[in-house]
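Exercise 7.
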Amino acid sequence: MASTSDIRNGLCIRYNHDIFKITEFLHVKPGKGPAFVRTKLKSVTTGKVIENTFSAGHKIEDVRVETHKFQYLYNDGEFYHFMNVEDYTQIRLVEGVLDQPKLLKEGEVVTVIINTEDNAPLSVEMPASVILEVTHTEPGLKGNTATNATKPATVETGAEVNVPLFINEGDKIKIETEKGTYKERIKE
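Solution. The predicted structure, written as tokens, is:
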């Protein structure tokens, strides 16, 4: 058993007969009344996100987990297939478990969180950023880069990202995986 002081991003807890991963939290100490922790929880089975408030000192049941590095192999339409980089065993996961499935490129190494009780994969943590090639975007107009204007661009995995006007087809860009936003252009 853990308490609210142990809450951190990525912690998996058992709550309402399901396992949730904490994606955001905020400890709040108001001027009047007791302290509490406001959290955003994502179900690892359904992908549904809920918000919940725990009073300070509240006991929560944490789930013991292990992390393993897996390489993304392919998507067959229904499942995403991964291979353990240490022992080469393969697993397949449904799309709901993945945070940003549209940003997964074949060969990408991700961290898979596995429940130690039944060895079931709970969630997939993407790297902080990924580098992808732009496959389609409208050409930017010369001299139209003084403002922070953006345009949609499709990357090699099929995801659509808003990019600055100077990005062209064939450019490699770094995308922040947590928000799915453009970070910078990669010079080769």
